[in-house]
């Protein structure tokens, strides 16, 4: 018994029941306070209506911090993320599993699991065309109007998002009717069938009457896209939209997304860990690592001149046609524990190029061009580089 205790005490990740209770009490205090603030009635509009820094953007993430207050400690899932999505463009977000890509997009939809998940700092400005909302402060009742109309989301696994007990038509109709309250039943049905045709489903009238299990994975993903686009949103968030599909269907779905985006003149935030997909689709790329952005730039800049050792590692770990290698590169080590992040560069322990300075404070963002920024000490002495410090 004594031996087990000793062993447990030595394990840095071990937390006693007493400690856990203490953490959970503290968490409750913090989250109750935030929830109280959020759940106020009649929040004045001035609190959440704001202005874009650049009116050509649809979304501006500005120093976003989204934390999860769990019983074993605070997970800093998104820890100071800033980037823009310009109108009419596709912005790709890449990074290893667990680096905070989904939490960033869920923060924008106000779908982070509450009360333990909270935006604790920063803002997300969403431009509806008429007004600008700061999503971090927008009350839930207002957010409901924005979801689907201004911004909609296509999830990774369509079977978990479609309801298995209702026909496709019923589910599509519901979405369309919810956002177009004055439409007649007949018009709603026609619009649903039109949407099915738009996403390339040949037998649209037949599929309208089918259940989700009667469709293939690719068709289900098309239905999800039809639902997401039913109200011509200004921004489509696609979180790993093709991960569950084979490569031919993947190519078709990506093509479809690209065409529809141009048709309704919207923008896409494309989340994936597949650099091939990014290369094909994105205008801008954001590379995330452990809740922070390590590099961002235009797709050309990131692919022609990847600068952060992590981005270079990602590039090297993908197979290239015509290039013969004995064994595919993999980045050594693993992502640090999100509860106990080091106070130096999060990538340092896995980095093959780390230098002495890397043990210092987290590196500032350095601009290599007007659009290309990297957070790494290797670039600190680059001529003309400007740090915008955090
Ligand atoms: N509900 C939750 N409660 C506690 N921690 C969470 C919760 N949701 C996400 N996290 C944590 O937040 C971090 C970021 O998760 P996220 O889902 O954003 O990763 P991701 O980049 O989308 O990964 P993937 O590529 O696997 O989808 C992870 O460390 C995860 O464990
Ligand atoms: Mg994810």
What secondary-structure arrangement, pairings included, does this model have?
Blueprint (H helix, E strand, L loop, with lengths): L1 H9 L6 H22 L10 E2 L6 E14 L2 E14 L3 E5 L6 H9 L7 E11 L4 E3 L5 H7 L4 E4 L3 H4 L6 H12 L5 H14 L5 H5 L8 H13 L5 E5 L7 H17 L3 E5 L3 H7 L2 E6 L2 E7 H6 L4 H8 L49 E2 L5 E2 L16
Parallel strand pairs: 4-9, 4-10, 7-8, 8-9
Antiparallel strand pairs: 1-6, 2-3, 2-5, 5-6, 10-11, 11-13, 12-13
Helix pairs in contact: 6-7, 7-9, 9-10
The structure holds adenosine-5'-triphosphate and magnesium ion (MG).
Mean pLDDT: 87
Helix content range: 25-40%
Low-confidence stretches: 383-390
Q: How far apart are the termini? A: 48 Å
Question: What is the rounded Rg?
Answer: 23 Å
Classify the beta-strand content into a percent band: 15-25%
Discrete helix count: 13
Bound molecules: adenosine-5'-triphosphate, magnesium ion
Q: Label the structural class.
A: alpha/beta
Label the overall shape.
Answer: globular
H/E topology pattern: HHEEEEHEEHEHHHHHEHEHEEHHEE
Name the strands of the widest sheet in spatial order.
Answer: 7-8-9-4-10-11-13-12
> What about the largest sheet?
8 strands, mixed
E-strand count: 13
